[in-house]
Amino acid sequence: IVGLGNPGKQYSLTRHNAGFLFADLLADKQGVKINKIQFKSVTAAIRLSGHKCLLMKPQTLMNASGDAVSEAAAFYKIPIENIIVMSDDVNLDVGRIRVRKSGSDGGQKGLRSIIYLMGFDNFPRLRIGVGKKPHPEMELADWVLSRFTDSELKQLEKLMGIAAECVELYIAGKHDEAVRLCNAKHELENK
Question: Which of 161, 180, 2 is nearest to 87 (CA)?
Answer without folding.
Answer: 2
